[in-house]
Amino acid sequence: MAVTIQNSFNDVVALQKPLVLTASSNNTSEPKFRYVMTIDVNGTEVIKVKQQANSNDYVHFDLYQILKDYLTSKNLDGGTPIHKILTTVDGDDTAIFVEINVYEEYATSATTDPTEYPSTGNATDSFLAINSNFQFTDGVTPTLAGVYEFNNDTTEIQWLTNMPTRLKTRAGEYQTAAILASDFRGAVSTSLRYSITFYEADGTQISTANITRLTIGMANFVATKSAVNAGVLYQFIPIGYQNLEDQSFNTSIRPSTQANLAYYTINIFDNSGDYITKTYRFDIAECSKYTPIQLAWVNALGAWDYYTFELAHTEKLNIQRETFRKPYGNWGAGASYTYSQYESGDTIYKIEADKQYTVNSDWLNDLDFEWLQELLMSKEVQFVNENGDFTPVIITDTDYEFKQDVNNKLNNLQLTFKLAHKIK
Fold first, then answer.
1. Of 36, 150, 337, 361, most Cβ neighbours within 10 A?
2. DSSP 8-state symbol, 142
């Protein structure tokens, strides 16, 4: 008599809503039978769930509701905002190590207390879960292998993003990206290279550099499930203009040292010729008569994406005041009643405001619109304030119109957000 987990999990699992575990048992006719599931996160038991069998003697557990609170986005590395890193850094709790034990509880009769059997006839599974935001669709499991995860072939792997492979950057802008350091489906050489090439506007190469994994601080890819390896499964890399300008591991790749620079490209590869990522191009944005507004958000794969709204924007304060009415004059003292001109009846005792921005993008195509949907659906959005700091904001738009490219006509996006902290 034993429990069987009916669905198998990959070594690296993208968290989706719901993430379902289905189990069965040939012991469901026992008195007071219930399925029991325990989950350990990074080696610590975090929950025990008991559930009766359904009408067909199976059980379904939604792991998403349990695991989602243990996965976090990467905001700081030490005291440095993740956006401003100058070397590769680990993802920490952006991924977690999950261990599952499903077993039985039942009694010997209808009048006795049930007993748990955690190590007899039980079934176990384990995986590394990443902080993704996929929606369950008709039993489809989110695809990582061959898209974001190395699959032991020559397929170009995406970084942990759905952004286009051509974007803009500019002096003063910080950006990072992340790759999935998974060796589970095929070994990736430790001789990884961070490859960057600089170009003039006509495509003439200015310079190129292939920087070793150790130089940029990148961890080895992992092939063993553990809490330690979950912490390095995300590798965040510096990719923005200002990240490259501020770094010191290779001063020859500072953008300001590249004469006639128009754009640069970055990809990651290993010397054995197996692992290679897509190549992402970053065009150096020209000066604009408008003040650009850069937003950063946690994307559908738990890493950070960035977009700068380059056209005109507006700012306004939505002010909230709370008042009370007080009597004025010297009611409590004096031989005659008097009052002063500065005294008021209605008095403000609390005032605060929401600062709101309305921003406008440059011209976008269909793929840009599809990608920017993740911005509106993200729970964590930040914008770069006038001091150059990333500060949390709330997107206030409640709908998103997909503007289709008709006869090569492009469209732009208008977006409204407010600071997450009130001005007081």
1. 150
2. P
